[in-house]
Design goal:
alpha/beta; 6-stranded mixed β-sheet
């Protein structure tokens, strides 16, 4: 039995505020999830993040208040929290008094990053790198991802919307992996898989209905013989493995949109590969447009 934790990065709307939409699925053997979860919790503990969610996009933002606090780097974690909280309270009071339109967004940003304010930017980046390297060391974990360049996605020609196409692709590749794995002579029993998706009220019913159709008619690419049930939707705050899927999706999007390779090169190691070690688990949909990214070049070599 394998669990596939799914999360997204970017917005599926066209045009939206990102050029790419990424859906990533992280497949983990059911007998390993507790061990792997414990490894992530140990890393969190080193950075005083026990009990907090790993939300990569918010972790890797610059926090302007920190740069204005003298000797911030030399302070202990408790003092850092106090100083940043005080600076943020002053800023919110200033925006409130001036009736600034930025007040609501700033308050939201502060809330989203509240758990991480005791860490400097370099420490937050090191934390994400430590988590990514640990994930990359799990040789029995597989990454499946669909990366859609929305600029080249024609909704009038596509059978599905952006997010639906991404979901169908991830489900199809996960299913194919389970089928191939079950045929392995060293595998004594048929392997089944279950999808666990970050809870999103607007997506849950749509993806559940879509999955029911896949079970009845198959996807465009394959029948579903090994993937069971419809997806389970869980709060990402409560499970580290969905948070790791979020990390993978974020790293893929930042590479494709901003050519940031450091984290991409780490997590790309876990992409599902064929017998010739070509990555078949991650696809960059770029329409008919030329692309020189690592993902597309890998698929050219696979043709």
């Amino acid at each position: 039995m394998r669990l596939c934790y799914i999360d997204e990065s970017g917005t599926p709307q066209i045009p939206g505020n990102t050029s790419h939409y990424i859906l990533a699925g992280l497949s983990i053997p059911i007998n390993k999830w507790k061990s792997y979860d414990n490894q992530i919790e140990k890393i969190k503990s080193r950075y005083d993040l026990t009990g907090y969610e790993i939300h990569t996009a918010w972790l890797l933002r610059p926090y302007l208040e920190q740069t204005k606090i003298p000797n911030f780097e030399s302070m202990d974690f408790q003092t850092r929290r106090f100083e940043v909280t005080r600076a943020r309270t002053i800023e919110l009071q200033r925006l409130s008094k001036s009736k600034s339109k930025q007040f609501k967004q700033t308050k939201k940003n502060f809330k989203k990053t509240e758990a991480y304010i005791h860490l400097s930017y370099s420490e937050r980046k090191n934390f994400i790198i430590d988590v990514a390297n640990t994930l990359a060391s799990w040789n029995d974990v597989r990454l499946f991802a669909e990366c859609i360049n929305k600029l080249n996605f024609n909704p009038t020609l596509a059978r599905l919307s952006v997010d639906e196409q991404a979901f169908e692709q991830v489900v199809s590749r996960f299913e194919k992996y389970l089928q191939i794995f079950s045929k392995n002579p060293h595998c004594k029993t048929k392997h089944f898989g279950l999808l666990i998706h970050d809870n999103n009220e607007t997506e849950a019913k749509k993806l559940t209905d879509l999955m029911k159709k896949f079970h009845h008619n198959g996807t465009f690419w394959t029948d579903l013989r090994n993937t069971i049930e419809t997806p389970l939707f869980v709060d990402s705050e409560l499970t580290s493995m969905v948070q790791l899927a979020d990390l993978c999706a974020f790293c893929l999007r930042r590479y494709l949109e901003n050519q940031e390779e450091d984290l991409f090169n780490i997590i790309y190691k876990r992409g599902d590969r064929d017998k010739k070690q070509r990555c078949v688990g991650v696809r960059h949909y770029n329409g008919n447009g030329p692309c020189s990214c690592i993902i597309c070049n890998n698929h050219k070599e696979s043709d």
